[in-house]
Amino acid sequence: MHSISPAGRALARLGGCVRLSAQMNKNSSSMMALAPNTSNKRETVCIFGTGDFGRALGHKMIQSGYPVVYGSRSTQISNLIPKDAEVLGHAEAAQKAAIIIIAIPRQHYNFLTPLAEVLHGKVLVDISNNLKLNQYPQSNAEHLAQLLPGSKVVKAFNTVSAWALQSGTLDASRQVFVCGDDVEAKQMVMNIVRALGLTPLDKGSLLAAQEIENYPLQLFPMWKFPIFLSLGLTAFFFFYCVLLDIIYTYIYEKNDFSFFIAITIPNRVCPVMALILLALVYLPGIFAAIIQLYRGTKYRRFPDWLDKWMLCRKQLGLIALAFASLHVLFTLVTPIRSFVRWKTSTRIISQVMNNKTEPLDHTNAWLSDSYLALGILGFFLFVLLGITSLPSVSNNVNWREFRFVQSKLGYLTLILSTAHTLVYGGKWFLSPSTYKWYLPNIYILSLIVPCAVLVVKFLLIFPCVDKPLTQIRQGWERNPKYSEQSNYIINKSAV
Amino acid sequence: MHSISPAGRALARLGGCVRLSAQMNKNSSSMMALAPNTSNKRETVCIFGTGDFGRALGHKMIQSGYPVVYGSRSTQISNLIPKDAEVLGHAEAAQKAAIIIIAIPRQHYNFLTPLAEVLHGKVLVDISNNLKLNQYPQSNAEHLAQLLPGSKVVKAFNTVSAWALQSGTLDASRQVFVCGDDVEAKQMVMNIVRALGLTPLDKGSLLAAQEIENYPLQLFPMWKFPIFLSLGLTAFFFFYCVLLDIIYTYIYEKNDFSFFIAITIPNRVCPVMALILLALVYLPGIFAAIIQLYRGTKYRRFPDWLDKWMLCRKQLGLIALAFASLHVLFTLVTPIRSFVRWKTSTRIISQVMNNKTEPLDHTNAWLSDSYLALGILGFFLFVLLGITSLPSVSNNVNWREFRFVQSKLGYLTLILSTAHTLVYGGKWFLSPSTYKWYLPNIYILSLIVPCAVLVVKFLLIFPCVDKPLTQIRQGWERNPKYSEQSNYIINKSAV
Amino acid sequence: MHSISPAGRALARLGGCVRLSAQMNKNSSSMMALAPNTSNKRETVCIFGTGDFGRALGHKMIQSGYPVVYGSRSTQISNLIPKDAEVLGHAEAAQKAAIIIIAIPRQHYNFLTPLAEVLHGKVLVDISNNLKLNQYPQSNAEHLAQLLPGSKVVKAFNTVSAWALQSGTLDASRQVFVCGDDVEAKQMVMNIVRALGLTPLDKGSLLAAQEIENYPLQLFPMWKFPIFLSLGLTAFFFFYCVLLDIIYTYIYEKNDFSFFIAITIPNRVCPVMALILLALVYLPGIFAAIIQLYRGTKYRRFPDWLDKWMLCRKQLGLIALAFASLHVLFTLVTPIRSFVRWKTSTRIISQVMNNKTEPLDHTNAWLSDSYLALGILGFFLFVLLGITSLPSVSNNVNWREFRFVQSKLGYLTLILSTAHTLVYGGKWFLSPSTYKWYLPNIYILSLIVPCAVLVVKFLLIFPCVDKPLTQIRQGWERNPKYSEQSNYIINKSAV
């Protein structure tokens, strides 16, 4: 018999490998003392299928004190199967446990139908994953529930990787999404999840199974568009700068400034990208307001592109913050750069040679200090916005607070950043010498979107525009077919 | 009939707008496949009231596959009401569903009393909000429960904004606070919350309703005092610096240093504010210890001002960190400033003109490197303290760890920051020339509070003071009226 | 009678001290209005033991509207006990409540056995803590459950400190771990936890009690090894640098550079530590891959040291990030240092004296800009890795995303950091003058581990090595005793 005291033996063999929960995984030895009296308490779990994930889950369960029975076509004991587990035929194994984990692929679910009688009333845990998003019209768990209507199907464990279970290195999310129509069955599975040191998250009824099955297949879906947009714009501005700053200089001034590629040009592209992306965060809100004003209602859907744009504003903002941070770092290393030190000493030496001392240029001092101060304040607010978008912080503020931060502070950040760029790059607007090959400097390009956003936003906060907009957003319609006011006069005949 | 397959139609019409949960909202298309088989599974939900929030919630529910019935005075279909919803009289609508969402203002709750019989045994979801904190002595939900004692009242959804539900841009908290006296009713509502892609948070019985109703009305209540204090102090120190550094210089030395307003003075005010606020974080703890030592007990309440002060220490500390970060940024841009570059070259040129080279001043090199190193280490620890106060991090440490970080590392930060200021500003203490208009330099002002805190704290850790304090904090009293020791002698007669 | 309206009186006396929950603790006054109608709703709670924690919990419960009855040997009222609580004999007190909080030490649990009959069917809440980890083979709560098999034992509250409850300053974790075998009893206790403004966290059955009892005794157990390792290495490199940079220079060049201790040497040690620790994060993965390739299976445990190493990779990485951040700060203050400013002006003056201007050294400009750019990008990615390891962020990414970030971005960070060091320190490799006392420069020492990791990793991604490794990690074995394929042919006889 393999199942008499599996926990004790498993623990003796597996040693320090037991780690219970996210917050308690700090002291694995605590489980050792726990083991002896667990074997007679935990209910037996049956696992159908001896594939990789079935074995990994079995190992982990035995470590956590569960007697495990494998249901398999062949009852010969493989050395792959955890030593303390029993291996029986499917029907025999199923009879031994109230919970059966279905660790076999969806294609083979049909083979369970002859077992319907044995599985009647049992909790079946569907742990399967698909190879691509929405592979089947119906989720695997719902398919299983349809095949075996007498069993209680619970979806769980599919978001955990076998490798992670095996190695115990659960650094990533310990959350296990659980869904199912039977509340008690779900509760039983959630208890096992907790016992394995993971955190169950109830996602409601079995209707959520499709989502749960799609979840582990995703790779930052919301980030795709913002990242591709940023890469494209960055490449464009980078080559634009290479053209104007390196190639132009090389052709007309015979100076080789190719080393500008490392810092000078990145430090021109980063602030431009940060400013444009930050403006793109607030642009869809402007469009939405204009559309609502034009239509006179909020009850019609926005065009699809605007909808999608609004949903990736957070991502756009965070990428803008990344560019701003790089800009700060690139700027702060300026005085350490070999080229800058050479330029400084050359300038001083030439002054000495010419035997003249320049007086302090007050305008220059003002401009230089102003754009630095504006930049610092803008960056500071930007980091604040970034911190409030951390999930744990944004969960701790209410809607009023969130909108205050994201809207008020966000626009202040945009104003400060735009002012920073205007003060810094102002001198380039007028001087014609900056128009190399009749192309504008990228500072000028970078200011178009943010200035447009700020101007239109300024117009939108005028009372004559703001008032109807606020009304529309509170549910008012300019041309309603039939208007029902929300005042409730007690009208007994209608009741 | 509108309710035959609302989900399918709603989804077809609303397209990519469906987003289920915080962690699963990445792939909206996954819901499309889910839609067809949901319509016959989700239970019908009734909504009383066709105001803005009622309509927004109805839209969202239809998108998530719930058949929705509106209860309204007038059963004419308005184009504001979601197309796939039925509109019936209140009584008729209520009979169709087990859950009725009361989307009407509290003032009109009386109109529900004639419906008591129809609503008997039904789950009523109170989603109302008030206009100001504690507007009524009794929460809306408890008022509703009193009016209809036969119904099961659950408070929910009031923290979600209609605009957010409508637009789908749930960037902020997805948490929906739920409370109610009936566990099953609460569970039913929580399932709907999950199905809408939000996260229910059980806040216990209906007694929590007042709190839940107050929650969305708050705007950073704990931050108000720390922010006003900081603004006041900042303004004071700013004008103090303007007086001494710009006006004094202009009057007596005829130099116009007005551009100091942009960076030089902010970079004098920020470190002063950071140091003072950091000391103010630890000052109430000192006061509390003195009061407890004096009273000889911990079982009497602190004065009100101390209680409030202790509760906003985290906020004070975070504002101090913000000032420290600004100080770091302002300091690091120093070499890029036009004024500083001018000063450097002027100094070098004057050395050349006088034909002398200064040897390395070792004392100066030591002082300069020491205060920079102290400042860097202090700032580093300060950032560490800030990170551990993030909700998700502080939830993952136990009390012992939290107190170790906040107390031990906190005091180390204060010591390092004070030492940084002392080493940097030390030279100003003695030289009389720094006392312009007999006013002390702000470095001296900034050191008063932190030095006082450190000296008293140093006295408090002496064993002769620390021992009684520790005893008091473990429950010991110096002059108890009646003292009961915690040793348990088995005393059968007392049992 | 003390229990008629304890809540009202308690609140009147305790004033602003009431704070309900983590997210709602912003407005304590909201509870005042709540108080009057609570007294007749909350069920009575009995507390056995009038020690410090028992009193603190009683205070808090009365504030939250619970009638509290103390069970005590002596029924004389002590002024330590909350004024609104009743004090009765143990048996009498227990009869008044369904929930009894056992606030007495484990050593005195035996005294409860005579009360078994009175306590039959009651919910006993074990709140005890031990003095050291795994003090008893059986957890206190399980011991209690064994003594009183007729009662429903729930473990809770042991992770909350009496001081925190008393002072209301619950800045740290508000999570209360709850475990117990009876679901309803657990639910009752969790409702009390919520009413006290804390967040209950269900940890499953009473088997989790040992863990919960060990939790508050820990002090960063996972951080111990990484911190000691870092301290040791830091001390070694620090003295190595002192030897070569200060002592050697003093002996052979008669220059006193002792002030290098403050910034120059820390800024040499920090990057070295950051690079080595980052490489040590990826080294165990390399070892694991080699071991798996050699053994031809993933189903045998790794040696213990490797297991432990793999479990503290996150901590190693975060310490590496701390060193990298310090390196960045130390580097950025370089131009402000008195010594550096002196060196710069001396260099310029000597150029002037010699009447020559150096032309721009393009190679130098390239090298200087390249290593700065590489360092900035590497640090940027490193900070990104740090942010994704915040619990709230890592809980919001799935396994695929987590592995993408930690593996792909992690290796990119390592490559950039190594390249940064190579470009910066490259010149020291060849020049023999850098081998003071035949000892290599620490740049050379720092590159050994990261280069080794990168070279082996490069070999491991060759298809001829990667393919068998991937197979092994998917569960394939090179020499299985008995091999069961995971294809499920419907085999009715086996069923």
TrEMBL record, chains A, B, C:
GO cellular component terms attached to this protein's record: endosome membrane; nucleoplasm; plasma membrane
Gene Ontology biological-process annotations: copper ion import; fat cell differentiation; iron import into cell; protein homotrimerization
Gene Ontology MF: a single term: heme binding
Domain Ferric oxidoreductase: 272-406
Swiss-Prot/TrEMBL keywords: Copper, Endosome, FAD, Flavoprotein, Ion transport, Iron, Iron transport, Membrane, Metal-binding, Oxidoreductase, Transmembrane, Transmembrane helix, Transport
Residue ranges crossing the lipid bilayer per the database entry: 227-252, 272-294, 315-336, 370-388, 409-430, 442-465
Membrane topology: Multi-pass membrane protein
Organism superkingdom: Eukaryota
Pfam family, one: F420_oxidored
Catalytic activity field: 2 Fe(2+) + NADP(+) + H(+) = 2 Fe(3+) + NADPH; 2 Cu(+) + NADP(+) + H(+) = 2 Cu(2+) + NADPH
Domain Pyrroline-5-carboxylate reductase catalytic N-terminal residues, every copy: 44-130
Cellular compartments annotated: Endosome membrane
Major place of residence: membrane
Cofactor(s) the protein needs: heme b; FAD
Sequence similarity: Belongs to the STEAP family.
PANTHER family found in the cross-reference section: DUDULIN-RELATED (PTHR14239), METALLOREDUCTASE STEAP4 (PTHR14239:SF5)
Protein name (database record): STEAP4 metalloreductase
Species of the source: Taeniopygia guttata (Zebra finch)
Phylogenetic classification of the source organism: Eukaryota, Metazoa, Chordata, Craniata, Vertebrata
